Amino acid sequence: MNAILRSSLCLSAMLILPALAQEAKPAAPAPVSGERFTTGTLTATVAAINHQTRVVTLKGPLGNDVSFVVSEEVQRLNEVAVGDKVTVDYVVSLAGEVRAPTEAEKKTPYAVSTEQARSPDGKAPAVGLVRTIRAVGTIAKLDATIQLVTLKGPRGNTLPVRMTDSAKFNQLHVGDTVIMTYTEAIALSLKKTAPEAK
Q: Is residue 87 very low, low, confident or very high in pLDDT (cuts 50, 70, 90)?
């Protein structure tokens, strides 16, 4: 772009922009939103398995149990037995957006969806799970001293969330509607352990 053309464009912008600024209406502020996520890997033990109902219970390293149903799409479940070690890679996220709910969200203020995938033939049995919970909640309490927001879900349960962005925290009000989306993506892979030497 040559100097004459650049000068012409700058002059045009200087003449047009003030006129547009007078006519333009202020844009609505963007809704307050935020997201946090964490990732990790842990090893769990198959504590129980029911091949008929396809319910698998895992015991985590802290002794906590988690049960879930393995879908029919996941084959070779018969290769999994009590005592097998599984590696669990997970990503957990929580997102929130302060805004009015859509008509669909008003109709179903609490919705859960789950998807599963299985490992290809020839590979060790594995399953991937993605569970998403969407809930329409409200801000029940605000604690400005530690920037803590207490959210109340559609079932009456509460969830404290600490915010790190002061500007966003200062835009919140008790009673605001918050659309919360909780997602957990878990990849379980079977890791056979060698029998203990006697």
A: confident
Position 3 confidence tier, pLDDT thresholds 50, 70, 90: very low
pLDDT of residue 191: 58
What pairs with residue 1 in β-bridges?
A: none
Is 120 inside a domain boundary? yes
The answer to whether residue 15 is domain-embedded is no
Residue 143, beta-bridge partner list: 148
Range of the domain at 101: 29-189
Euclidean distance between CA atoms 135 and 91, whole angstroms: 19
E strand or H helix that includes residue 86 = strand 85-98
Residues 58 and 67: their CA atoms lie apart, in Å, by 6
The residue to which tokens 């909640």 are assigned: 137
How far apart (Å, rounded) are the C-alpha atoms in residues 163 and 63? 31
- Into how many domains does the chain fold? 1
Q: pTM here?
A: 0.59
What does the DSSP 8-state code read for residue 64? Answer: -
